[in-house]
Amino acid sequence: xxxxxxxxxxxxxVTFLVIAQFSYAQKRESSKKKEETSQAQLxxxxxxxxxxxxxxxxxxxxxxxxxxxxxxxxxxDNSGILYAMSNNYLKLKDESxxxxxxxxxFQQNSTNETYGELxxxxxxxxxxxxxxxxxxxxxxxxxxxKSEFYVAQAAVYIFDNHLDEAIKSYNRAEKxxxxxEEITRQKQMVLVKMGKVEDAIKEGEKLIASDPEExxxxxxxxxxxMSNKRNDQAIPYLEKILTMNxxxxxxxxxxxxxxxEKGEIEKCNxxxxxxxxxxxxxxxxxxxxxxxxxxxxxxxxxKETAFNxxxxxxxxxxxxxxxxxxxxxxxxxxxxxxSARDEYVKAARLDKSINEVWGNxxxxxxxxxxxxSAIVHSEEAIEVFPNQAAFWYLNGSAYYQxxxxxxxxxxxxxxxxxxxxxxxxxxxxxxxxxxxYNSLSKYQxxxxxxxxxxxxxxxxxxxxxxxxxxxxxxxxxxxxxxxMGARLVEKHPDNxxxxxxxxxxxxxxxDYNKARIYLERAVVQNKSNSGTIxxxxxxxxxxxxxxxxxxxxxxxxxxIGSTSTLIDKKIAEMKLIE
Length: 578
Known about the structure:
single chain; mainly alpha; disordered N terminus; TPR repeat
């Protein structure tokens, strides 16, 4: 059994039309050339033409053209074949050749509407709008009662920015078919573009008068007025709609918008509540309204209304992920991060494909310092988005914080592989890879990662600090460490951590006097709250021969905490322990 699809049916229609054009043209034109072309030749031309149509049906347009050319060699002025040639070149996207054959076909038979419409369409495609308008004018002269020609002509005038002429054409079409919604819409669009807003409004009034009970006409008129800053004029139309249909959600929403712009918040909130009471208003629309409302709500009353509407939305649509995601947004704005995370998780369980929701979940995990949850959630996100570098990076960050450096390095390497070159994320990945590989004692890889990060951003504070400090601990590349450390403290002269890092580089390089200067500044800036800085200060004092002061600083460091494991031994033996 043959399966007739739409494309096949369309092709058949074109085929029958073209065959009809050929036959008509042959009858009309063969009498003129009876003496020049024999009946046998005409039959041969028809055979070539039929063969061409067969190839056209098979979408083998090149072969179709070959067959048509053979037919044209016999009957060169046959309008049907010329029209078929134009159609074939159009299929081959060769509009220039299509125009040549369409012009010839129309010259041969200028009363044929099909030829004229094809030629006008081709002129429009090539932006020959004046020529297209003239074709429609000639078609209108042949059939002045056909409204479609006026509408098509108006479209050409719009393309050519002859807007006054477009309005005239629409008016002529309207005289034939009466007030028409589509023509009114087009006229309003043109009139607004011309700056004739009053005329556009009058067109809307005429449409409403043609069917006063049609709600959509009133909605459209209100939208036209609102989009042209005529809000007060829009309100009566919306009130009229609500008189006809008190539950019309769209009218309530538009009124809410108008009242919000006027600063009448109580009325705005009331209209929103009425809109949300409409069960026929779909969840997606409600969610979109809420998002827009939340972004503009400034006063506490509006925020409370938004919050209550979201709770209603969640309660009435518990299986809709958008409602949970919006509720999560509101809870996060209120500072209830744990509850927000729970709502985002519900949204993700209902629809795993919302990338932003997963990002929100994992970021809140980190804020709540629930690193195990961050690992679980980032791995769930990776299952859904295996090619999203950000989720691999977050997963690597979580494993790094859990001191599982092997897993961290695997995830971070995958993040680096997936991140496009030049992305800002690259330097963050490389910075953390530098830390991770240092913890694994893979120092070459650590250095390479740090240097890759600095290549993107030479002033990355995190990288400059950690790379400098780790080099000093290893006592390697000390000139580089000193240069980076000096650059860091020049940028941040009051940062105790950075002052300590640079001082320790100087200490390793045995420049104890200079190290002392920076450590004393670090102690002051940190207000003696870092055991590491105070311990380092003691070490420098010891190297400078101030043994009693050194022991005093070591004891103070022990009281603060976060010191080296050798602090007790240093205090007991009153000397540095290597």
